[in-house]
Amino acid sequence: MDPYIPLRFLTSILIMLSISSASSYEIQDSFPTCVSKHSINHINSISTSFYTSKSASYNTILNSTAQNLRCISPSMPKPLLIFTPLSESHVQAAVICAKKLKIHLRIRSGGHDYEGISYTSELKSPPPFILLDLAKLRAINVDIPTNTAWVQAGATTGELYYKIAQKSRTHGFPAGLCTTLGIGGHITGGAYGPMMRKYGLGADNVIDARIVDATGKILNRKSMKEDFFWAIRGGGGGSFGVILAWKVKLVKVPPIVTVFTVPKTLEQGATKLLYKWQQVANKIDENLFIRVIIQPVVKNTKTGERTVQTSYNALFLGRANRLLEVMGRDFLELGLTKMDCMEMSWIESVMYFGNLPRNTPVEFLLQAKPPFKNYFKSKSDFVKDPIPESGLEGLWGRILEEESPLMIWNPFGGMMSKISESEIPFPHRNGVVFMIQYLTNWESEKVLVSKRYEWMRNLYSYMAPYVSKYPREAYVNYRDVELGMNNKLGNVSLKSASKWGMKYYKNNFNRLVLVKSRVDPQNFFWHEQSIPILSSWK
Ligand SMILES: Cc1cc2nc3c(=O)[nH]c(=O)nc-3n(C[C@H](O)[C@H](O)[C@H](O)COP(=O)(O)OP(=O)(O)OC[C@H]3O[C@@H](n4cnc5c(N)ncnc54)[C@H](O)[C@@H]3O)c2cc1C
Ligand SMILES: *[C@@H]1O[C@H](CO)[C@@H](O)[C@H](O)[C@H]1NC(C)=O
Ligand SMILES: *[C@@H]1O[C@H](CO)[C@@H](O)[C@H](O)[C@H]1NC(C)=O
């Protein structure tokens, strides 16, 4: 046996290691140098905006907005470098320099991506990357006389709602229920919330944007042209450029709104009631949004025996007396009483839906701190015909099998069905009765994750007969990489991407590909589910 083989083997490993660490080391050096050279302001302070894994605050910054703990577990890929720009010009420089140094960029605003693709990767050997974290670009400018607001990408939904409410009790914005979503990423996928039946999505209410394109230029609605502006309102984050800010249209809210949460267990007739809800939820008065939160609860503390609880959780844009009239006419079966109703200001309802305890001061919204973080896997579906009671019965069995599952059913209809499927890339419109979100949560690194995934996949196949078909639609803001992934940096198969692309965007996918091919022909803005370019078709 040749005694030199192990030695040669070792030498080549050492060479490989030194090459890869030399190049990462180089990027950690050359990227900041390049960025300072290309930035027009803050030249002195910028050096404190770069973090390598050796920096004391690297993990704190990386973890700060990562909402899914699964995606920051030790085995997940981590950025070579984190850069937190302080100005628009820094973002331009980051794009120009990443391109020049051929290093992949991941863009993060609020860090709520379900698969963490704004700061990690689910691929086996992903390309090394720099995290461009927009958390420091979070200015908000609300202008009541024109009913508009400019909001920088790193601001959260909660901060926007707070700033609006500070200036007016009768203005609001129709976006997500969670108060720590980054406006930057949230609106790129649609952004639904409790006012969607009256006003549509956040993305339906955007009137202008500032974006850094693949050449490093800043564009607004006028200079980017309408098909580019169309694509960024619902075509998913991280495909077309870096959103710097959105200009949004504010909507009217009454000075007093009403909320309620009414739980019903299986023993209290949950199955029949949920069947009825499916017949009214998308047709009832569009000032009323009643979603259903479904999870197991313990019914016998001695034996630990569980049952399924369905919670009817609602916002009504009006006062309780009027709400009781609407319910009496269209959904008497729930048995809503005046006692169940709480009247409050719109901003208090924001806190209520954000799961913040009743006496939390509204200023808490400015801290942009989520009330909880956990490990989770999720999927989504759209339902077009009520699920029969027999289908619900089978569902209960599956819910009771899993340790910590959760389903949220969100009603559509109203304004959602009046906007055409191609108005913006978000295509789930007329005919959708409700959207389902499936979740399984866990609280420790030690859990057997494969079991959770398996349960979710089984549930997803069980639901197939009851949900949308050809394609089986999915919500891009509930990203699910099991629907498919782009394989390698810059190498995207249009054919395989259209599998998940059609689910997220239906026929709008084709137009998104055309826009992408025009505005980013080199596919610089790439990630596991970014829109592919035409020339990558094989
Ligand atoms: C607890 C929780 C509650 C939620 N509730 C709702 C809800 O009520 N309604 C709803 O519609 N959705 C909801 N979502 C989903 C949410 O809308 C998406 O996760 C959304 O993408 C979050 O945006 P982000 O900026 O926080 O996320 P990020 O993780 O920062 O980004 C998400 C995606 O957008 C890209 N991106 C981020 N910033 C930019 C930018 N500036 N320019 C270009 N691309 C960018 C990222 O690369 C990534 O692809 C919820 C999510 C969580 C975790
Ligand atoms: C960041 O999160 C990881 C994974 O949950 C954890 O191991 C680590 O201690 C956290 N670090 C900081 C500084 O928060
Ligand atoms: C792109 O991916 C395909 C399929 O995985 C592969 O055959 C092809 O060689 C790749 N091309 C490049 C340029 O990496």
What does this structure look like?
- The chain starts with a helix and ends in a 19-residue tail after the last helix.
- It is built from 16 helices and 18 strands.
- Helix 1 runs antiparallel to helix 3.
- Residues 1-22 have low confidence and may be disordered.
- It has a domain at 257-344 and 373-474: Vanillyl-alcohol Oxidase, Chain A, domain 3.
- The chain is α+β, with helices and mostly antiparallel strands and 538 residues long.
- Strands 15-12-14-13-17-18-16 form a 7-stranded antiparallel β-sheet. A 5-stranded antiparallel β-sheet has the order 5-6-10-8-9.
- Bound molecules: flavin-adenine dinucleotide and 2-acetamido-2-deoxy-beta-D-glucopyranose (2 copies).
- One 2-acetamido-2-deoxy-beta-D-glucopyranose (NAG) binds next to helix 2.
